[in-house]
Amino acid sequence: MSKTLARHARAASLTDNAIDAVSPSLIIQALEDSATTTGRPDLAVAFSQWVNIRGFGPLSLLGEQCPTLRYAIEARRRYMHVVNGAYSMDLELIEDEAHILHTVLPSFRERAGQFLAGVMVFTVRLARRALGPGWSPLRVEFGYERHADLRSYDRFFHCPVSFGAERFAVVCPRADIDRPLPGHDPDMLAFVEGHLQKLAHEWPSSLEAQVERLIAANLEAGLATLDHIAEILAMSPRTLQRGLDASETSFADILALVRRKVAVSFFQEAPRRPIIVLAHLLGYSDASTVSRFLASTFGMSGRELRRRVMAGLPLS
Prior knowledge:
five-stranded mixed β-sheet, 14 helices
């Protein structure tokens, strides 16, 4: 399992920007691959029981500061796109029950079972941190088939568990989501929400800028393709290209622009690094490909570019 996770972890180490750090597709596929490799269909359920619940950025710090569980759920719905644009959480109130629903974009659904199972565990853990360790839902529903070994589920959920459902859901008493939470901290809540609002406002509004940011985030992993970026944006490749055509640009043009920016930054920040490092940053597998890219983009070799930078000359 460690090799599988390491492979995806390397692919996820893309930028210093938390918004762009990990593609939803990588998270979902890493969990599916790890479950298959280990032969543990309950992998996400078991793993999510012990992983640090506060280790997933500012959104993971929000829950305990909220006045009620309902507020925490609604806040996650407002800001989830900052962290993961493929996932969403919904709340349905049916008589005296609250149904907390977890869904992903249609293009991810066939391979998102592990991811959604892990999110359901996080939801219950959040509720227990807020309402007490003895809290349990009325029932939980999983959208995949029943496993042979249910010990991970029984040990954690302490409630009826159903499989083969049409949804992934945690069902609890409606009254529980409006119970005052003892850890409510208005000052900390305002601070965390302010930070999340800032991150949300930083997400570009134009399709062209969104594509540029996503290409930059996926370039090193070799995932800066039209199909992959379109999947993240929940549209078909043709629709994405039509949207870019309306801005008088193309996916290929933006990809070339991003690669040029990465190359300029590479030579300006550390010109003595081996050219193979730049190849990896650009999503190429060998130095010869990056050499051809530099020649076609800048009209000179990597050695000449390095010499210009060290001499204080601009790159043209």
